[in-house]
Specification:
Helix content of chain A: 25-40%
Order of helices and strands of chain A: EEEEHEEEHEHHEEH
Largest sheet of chain A: 7 strands, mixed
Distance between the termini of chain A: 57 Å
Largest interface: A-B, 33 and 33 residues
Radius of gyration of chain A: 20 Å
Oligomer: homodimer
DNA sequence: TCAAAAGTGTTGACCCTACACCCATGG
DNA sequence: CCATGGGTGTAGGGTCAACACTTTTGA
């Protein structure tokens, strides 16, 4: 015997991803050319319908993997967009995620989606309510970056303090005092200083650091609360 | 011509609400006896399926109204629960909201749901993943109450500082220094002091205040950031 | 008159901000 | 040798936490 809840018209469930990356000085996000109707050919977020056998997290991982070839991407739910007419073709609710990835030469984007990086403050018009999704995701990113150590997800494993500062300046769209910033971040003692220097942005070179996740967790257990 | 996206098995979309209330000293939440299969008769969150013609917010408002008779309840999305087998009957994803209401003698709960208030730290076992939903909602409430002035939604329009403090003590499950607390909250100057006193909890009586939303917005525009 | 809750002030520690100069080095 | 970005120290103000006693009044 198969039992069912009472019938309602079908509601499709989708996920859409705001994929952030950081490229030296700019916070960017990845947009794709929509490959199917409606609005085929327009700029849109990457997304997909949730399948029978997957949770929303699974669906998001699948979508991200197909585009970037990466697994274990940092991702976080933002909110659900569910206005009745948001998709003109059929009733679809969409759960928005943001994801953080490291832009570097190893990153090989699938050619299938016509994906392109855009600076967050110079975006094209997107389909449906996708611009609103971006706004919501950006706001959540700012909030989370301030209170959780997620900024490191956007940087290479080894990074310099000035690089980290530029990242936060890009996220907050605000200049930060370099002395205060480095004092604060070092005082949290969750960074491991490496011997090497990064000379790509200056002649003197800047010391490289690594985020020490284990140490961070210890500190949190001792009552540290991260805030930048 | 009707166009459709490719077919997938139907996924039902539901909302579930964690309704918080504050009763003098305790943070409570409202549970109902489930009235349909599966798990009929067990304690559960109040919820409902999203209908064709409503957004998630609409659905949540409808569910809250049917139970409490109230409109304009404060509510906020927490996250989506979407594990494939979370509902044994049929694939259902559920969007969790928390809502804040004022418990008082005007509150007339519908008799249809067998609803009952429970102290947040003395809850029964709930159906499905509802206990996890409560945990997620409670965490979000703590977070939000610290950073946004939502605590007032749980108190009567007129309230005393000690009452407000007891509320925050209940939310954080932590004692707060009454001198520091009242200094801090008054310094934010978003409360309007009224002439009257509340004598229900002491012989001396405590001055009543009102939250001044307009003033609060002004302060935020001037760069205040609320934090308790 | 006493019990019970409300109200109030001070101090020291810490943290945050603002600010300017020297260092290292590749070109 | 000089232009460029990296690195560092200090002082003042503000904020926060810790702490105890007086006030009011109903019972």
């Amino acid at each position: 015997m198969t039992r069912h809840y009472p019938h309602t018209k079908r509601i499709l469930v989708a996920v859409d991803c705001i994929i952030f990356g950081f490229d030296q000085n700019d916070l960017k996000l990845l947009l794709t050319k929509r490959s199917f109707e409606p609005e085929k050919g327009k700029w849109s977020l990457i997304g997909g319908f949730v399948q029978d056998d997957e949770s929303l997290d699974d669906a998001t991982k699948r979508v991200l993997y197909k585009l970037t070839g990466l697994k274990n991407i940092f991702m976080d739910e933002v909110k659900v967009f569910s206005e009745v007419d948001r998709d003109p073709m059929e009733r679809t609710i969409s759960v928005v995620y943001y994801a953080l990835i490291k832009i570097n030469k190893n990153l090989k984007l699938s050619r299938d989606y016509g994906a392109q990086w855009f600076s967050v403050d110079d975006l094209p018009v997107l389909i449906f309510d996708h611009n609103n999704m971006v706004d919501a995701a950006h706001e959540k990113l700012r909030w989370m970056a301030r209170h959780q150590p997620i900024g490191f997800e956007l940087l290479p494993k080894k990074f310099s303090i000035p690089q980290l500062r530029r990242l936060y300046e890009a996220i907050y769209d605000k200049e930060l005092d370099k002395r205060n910033f480095s004092r604060k971040i070092i005082a949290m003692s969750m960074l491991e200083k490496l011997g090497e220097k990064d000379k790509s942005t200056s002649k003197k070179g800047a010391y490289l650091y690594r985020f020490d996740k284990r140490r961070y967790r210890e500190l949190v257990n001792k009552g540290l609360n991260f805030e930048i």
